Automatic annotation (TrEMBL):
Domain of life from the UniProt record: Bacteria
Family assignment from sequence similarity: Belongs to the diacylglycerol/lipid kinase family.
Single GO BP term: phospholipid biosynthetic process
SUPFAM superfamilies documented for this protein: NAD kinase/diacylglycerol kinase-like (SSF111331)
Entry keyword set: ATP-binding, Kinase, Lipid biosynthesis, Lipid metabolism, Magnesium, Metal-binding, Nucleotide-binding, Phospholipid biosynthesis, Phospholipid metabolism, Transferase
Protein name: Sphingosine kinase
Entry-linked NCBIfam families: YegS/Rv2252/BmrU family lipid kinase
MF term (GO), any: ATP-dependent diacylglycerol kinase activity
Residues that span the membrane, as ranges: none
Gene Ontology CC: one annotated term: plasma membrane
Annotated DAGKc domain residues: 1-107
Known cofactor(s): Mg(2+)
Length: 286
């Protein structure tokens, strides 16, 4: 029998998680032998509750929230036998989409599978994309915006950040090579999407033991504006200013103060180093 906990982040989706917490618990309860309902009102509390539940030998941790809440669930479940399920109730829901979890039904009727994770030298885990440069500045702005909800928030943040666009010298080091370039953004993908469904690393596969890395070299505002529509289709990788490669380990330095974001969450200023950890997370999804 399955011992489960439902971790509710009430603020996710402008309160949507709080509104559907009762119905979500009711839908889960017939499918598990035990269901604890955990409610936290900030990131510190969420992570503390998640880690305590996992340490108690929980079989399944179901996160009701957005990518920020899912990121905290990843920190608790990574490297353990506890499976992570997600009932999406946030803005982007990129991790939920990556594992095929769009509803309670996908959690209760889904299958268990393992995913690779990325890990920073700080010990932090990430499941989707780590980025720095223009795209992390967009994340900073989008996180501060109160309107609109959904992917449109990222679209408006992109347009706003174009006004202050600048490239910076970037040193990229992998397990096999090192190169310098003048860059506008860099994205290290464990899965393809960030920002509410933007396939910045369209070929990324969370089961191949490798990151897919996308680097946009120096780009003018007009060039980036022409490139932006192709980001939604993943065809930006055909642009001559875009460089892609695969690696198990990636270190990024330079950037003139660029801050790294992972799973849409602020991490630290460059330099940062990340590595893939195959099969580090068990998830439930379609």
């Amino acid at each position: 029998m399955t011992r489960a906990a439902l971790l509710v982040c009430p603020a996710s989706g402008k309160g949507r998680a709080a509104r559907i917490a009762g119905s979500t618990a009711a839908a889960l309860r017939p499918h598990v032998s035990e269901l604890r309902q955990l409610v936290a009102h900030d990131a510190t509390g969420t992570l503390s509750l998640a880690r305590a539940a996992v340490a108690d030998g929980l079989d399944l941790l179901v996160v009701l929230g957005g990518d920020g809440a899912a990121h905290l669930g990843v920190q608790a479940c990574a490297g353990t036998s506890t499976a992570l399920g997600i009932v999406p109730a946030g803005t982007g829901n990129d991790l939920a989409n990556a594992i095929g979890s769009h509803s309670v039904e996908d959690v209760v009727n889904g299958t268990r599978k393992t995913l690779d994770l990325g890990q920073l030298s700080t010990g932090q885990w990430f499941a989707t994309v780590l980025c720095a440069g223009f795209d992390s500045a967009v994340n900073e702005r989008a996180n501060a915006m109160r309107w609109p909800a959904g992917p449109r928030r990222y679209d408006l943040a992109i347009l706003a950040e174009l006004a202050s666009l600048r490239s910076a010298p970037l040193l990229v080091t992998t397990e096999s090579e090192s190169f310098s370039l003048d860059a506008t953004l860099v994205a290290v993908g464990n899965t393809p999407n960030y920002g509410g469904g933007i396939p910045v690393c369209p070929q990324a596969d969370a089961n191949d033991g490798l990151f897919d890395v996308t680097v946009v070299e120096h780009a003018s505002r007009s060039m980036l504006m022409r490139m932006l529509p192709t980001l939604r289709t993943g065809t930006h990788t055909d642009h001559p200013a875009v460089r892609t490669f695969r690696a198990r380990e990636v270190s990024l330095s330079g950037g003139d103060g660029w801050v790294a974001y992972a799973d849409g969450e602020r991490q630290e200023a460059l330099p940062v180093s990340v590595k893939t950890v195959p099969g580090a997370l068990t998830v439930v999804g379609r």
